[in-house]
Amino acid sequence: MTGQPALTLFRKVVCVDPDDDLPPTDAAAALRLIQDERSATARRIDPDARLLYWPWGIAWLVGFGLFFLRFPPGEEELLRLPSWLPLTVLFALLLAAATVQAVASVRAYGQVSGDSARRGRWYGCAWALGPVSVYAGLGRISEHLPHDLAALLWSATAVGLTGALHMAGGAIWLDRDLFRLGVWISVINLAGVFAGPGWHALAVSVAGGGGMLVAGAVARRQQRQRQQP
């Protein structure tokens, strides 16, 4: 019994190639090894960018699109729908988008620690608490406004806050594309507000939702380039 472990250890030592544990002596081989490790880490950590952008883009495209069809500029609706349906669909799609993003982020960044993880948690708190505090104030004001202006106030505030948080995220992580998306959302929100009720929903649906879909496709393409060995 006492001699068997020694014999096994001897055989393992003899059979191991000593060159396997040595770092590559060629500089090019070492560089390729580093690049392969970086690509593998990026594939393991980075969530699919489409899961972070496309659910929100679809929610805006469909939800605000229904708002425009049900409450267009003027008196006559473009599509006969129950008045409660656009808001219900929009909230359901936004909730689904938030769930998809949360699951993708937890799976990707759950084991990440340090300053990046702390920034992510604090930024997530801004997304959670910021809208709640703003909407609480809107609830006290919108009841004194006509229906079309109240809807414009709610949607413009929500979209404007989204653009500001996107720009803040781009500044935190020095992500130029995320910052540009925040600027784009803010610009179309401003244009929609000046255009008035109805037109704002159309601008956010087409330009805002479509912009998020394009941003997701661009981010995914860049992601694949980073993940290539």
Automatic annotation (TrEMBL):
* Alphabetical UniProt keywords: Membrane, Transmembrane, Transmembrane helix
Membrane-spanning ranges: 51-69, 89-110, 122-139, 151-173, 178-195, 201-219
What protein name is recorded for this chain? Answer: Uncharacterized protein
**Could you tell me which species this protein originates from?**
Micromonospora taraxaci
